[in-house]
Amino acid sequence: MTSYSVFLIRKVLAIFLTFIAAVTFVFIMVRLVGDPFGTLVLEDPRITPEQIEKIKAVYGLDKPLHEQYVDFILNTFKGEFGYSLHYQRPVMDVIMERLPWTLLLLLPAIIISTILSIYTGMKTAWKHGTRYDVVVTSTALFIRSTPHFWLALLFLMFFGYYLGLFPLAGSVTPAKEFPSVLDYLADIAWHAALPITVLVVREIGMYMLYMRNAMVEVMGQDFVWMAKLKGLAERTVMYRHAARVAILPMVTVTALRFGFMINGAILTETVFSYPGMGRLIFDAIMNDDYFLVQGAFIIMTVTVLLANLVADLLYGVLDPRVRVT
Question: How far apart (Å, rounded) are the C-alpha atoms in residues 147 and 167?
């Protein structure tokens, strides 16, 4: 068995155990919130306690906790997360309906922000200590300390309300008939442009600093000095020698962002009333939608773990040293 096969088996096993631990954590945390059907009595006094008990039996919440846990684990592996109390539909159907809208925001935002973060981080590190470095780094620190929702509100107010360049809410113009598919896609892109811009600006402010710090550290190593002493061109030393090593931590960071950016999408989608996963999670929490919250957090967990696995495997290919650690 090769070292990469052993490395692969170890990583998959670690991901599986982490998934079980994360699902267990979700199971416990959701049940600590309280009775999911308690609000039914408050909203409709005609519902009797006996009827509530019958509803709990339908959802399996009348069983002992350990039996609920076993059912929860087995159903999770089947992709069955129960019925949404608010939408009165299977949770998986509701999530699959919203997930494409979030991916429409996240994929372009991650790709654009990653390219710009790497390039800006390299440039600021290479010009370390200059006015360019001070201005760009200070701007990045300011953006990094800016809350998602506040940045989104600023963009919405300036570009949407005052200038009228972008719509104020939604993912597509309601009740509008589109003469062609291209017009429909253009309308979707027009609605997504401002939320994507907010996510890109926020992410550049955060991850440019990662690349800059990694690049500064690499630039102090002997092989970079040797390349300079050989008389190689500045671009060759920067891109072919220093950047190839400094970019390795960005592989892990970029993969994890697919999961963690949903946190930012929750606030951004809420401000722009965008019908994605972020807005769905916010509404599920506000509506005490017990099963939808569970399902949404498990999907987020799977996304983060798969992204982490891909990052580890890529890291194992790019840097053979990690296979023996």
Answer: 22
